[in-house]
Amino acid sequence: MTATESAVRIVHFSSVVRRQLVDDRGDRIGRIEDLVVHLGAPHPPVVGAVVRIGGRDLFVPIRKIAGLGERRLAFTGNRVDLRRFERRPGELLLGRDLLARHLINVAGGRLIRANEIDLAELNGRWEVIGVDPSRRRVLRRLFHGHLGGQDGRSRVVDWASIEPFVGHVPTARLRIPYRKLARLHPAQIADLVEQASHEEGEEIIEAVGADRELEADVFEELDPEHQVEFLQSRSDTDAGRLLASMAPDDAADLIMEADQDRRLRLLEALPQPQRRKVRQLLSYNPETAGGLMSPDFVTLPETASVEEALDAVRHSTAAPESLQVVFALHEDGTVAGSASIVALLRAPADAPLSSVVRVIPAHVHPDWDLGEVVRKMSDFNLMVAPVLDPEHLHILGIVTVDDVLELMLPTGWRRDFGPMSAED
Questions:
Q1: Number of domains in the chain
Q2: In what helix (H) or strand (E) does residue 236 lie, and over which residues does it extend?
Q3: Is residue 288 part of a domain?
Q4: Per-residue pLDDT for the chain (424 aa), expressed as one digit of tens each?
């Protein structure tokens, strides 16, 4: 907040709602029930008030209300429009739609609750400038704005970094902008979904659905309970589209969490290349190396150059954590060895891959349980462990350290530790 803004008088929504609106002689006209704002601007303008007059809720434009920041609210118009209040597209009611509800603090990657809403008159109009999630503001509401003492503004969150949930408002055309959520890491978005109600979570998922890759990344970060919850609300076709965007091992895990009578339909909804990979993974116990492994990794002939290996990594669509190691193959397709990205970067570009690889790399087998996988990866400091067939000839897949950690951590661990921000 700038020095100019800090000098502006702040008006709390709780100090305005339920106040009397009087005429120029001081006679009571009605009572302020709510304030109406129009979304879309960094600081939404207040366009009017819902006033209870004679048992009816009527709309009074803000330009006809004087003293919003004073002790006396005066009606300055010539007459009151007696038509009942009806929302217009893009309008929200501060009390009914926002107060005490969850909001997304995009800057912090957290859900907050609007326990107070702050207004200020800027550039000749009243605007929503921030919300305060502190509990002290709950007491102000209970006492209708009459709460003594100085509470400061250190907890107030600038509205410019906030996105409200508006799915419950029939006339709200605006939804959570994808471009704002896209600034967050998929794990942060997953945190938001897991903190939110089902309806709020659906609104977040709908927003990130503008980018199928991001939507898939968020789904991969959700705990199994939420994955199944959102998968159940989708048709087989939509679920298949989502699963096709996910890594094969994550897609296989999610299919196994679905109802048994639906698993085959979900599998059939996948494109053929993805279906083949997922079907292979489903043949293994999910808590073995075979169930953990990803079938996406980079292999090249051992006769390839270091530059060709690096170029293959650049153009690979595999997940970044799978690209830390490149595997070299003999002419007959059997495994020759592996080379880390660091080793490749340090080697001359024209050197043969065979001169860089470690022959017969440390590995696991598909039937190994989690304990055996962890022990091997820990003993050899492996970020990526190849899964070899019993004859030690062919690579079936790879297990990455993040897959192991995810299985070792208890369900709901993220909620137990609270939401994650970019600064954490």
A1: 2
A2: helix 236-245
A3: no
A4: 444 445 677 899 999 999 999 998 889 999 999 999 998 888 999 999 999 998 999 999 999 999 887 878 999 988 888 889 998 888 899 999 999 899 999 988 899 999 999 999 988 899 999 999 987 655 554 544 444 444 444 579 999 999 898 877 766 655 677 778 888 999 899 999 999 998 899 889 888 888 888 888 898 888 888 988 888 888 999 898 889 988 898 899 899 988 888 999 999 999 998 999 999 999 998 889 999 999 999 999 999 999 999 999 999 988 888 999 999 999 999 999 999 999 999 999 999 999 999 887 789 999 999 999 999 999 999 999 999 998 889 999 999 998 888 777 665 555 555 555 444 4
Indicate if 306 and 169 belong to the same structural domain.
Answer: no
Element (H, E) at 384: strand 384-388
Q: What is the CATH number of the domain that holds 328?
A: 3.10.580.10
Locus of tokens 């679920």: 239
Residue 27 lies in a domain: yes
Residue that terminates a domain, selected from 154, 174, 194 = 174
What is the DSSP code string of 248-266? HHHHHHHHHHS-HHHHHHH
pTM across the whole model: 0.72
Domain containing 321 equals: 295-407
Q: Has residue 253 been placed in a domain? A: no
**How deeply is 265 buried, as exposed, middle or buried, from its count of CB atoms within 10 A (0-12, 13-18, 19+)?**
middle
Residue whose tokens read 């794990």 = 187
Structure tokens of 22?
Answer: 């009087």
Is position 196 within any domain? no
Q: Are residues 159 and 20 in the same domain?
A: yes
Cα 204 to Cα 215: distance, rounded to the nearest angstrom: 10
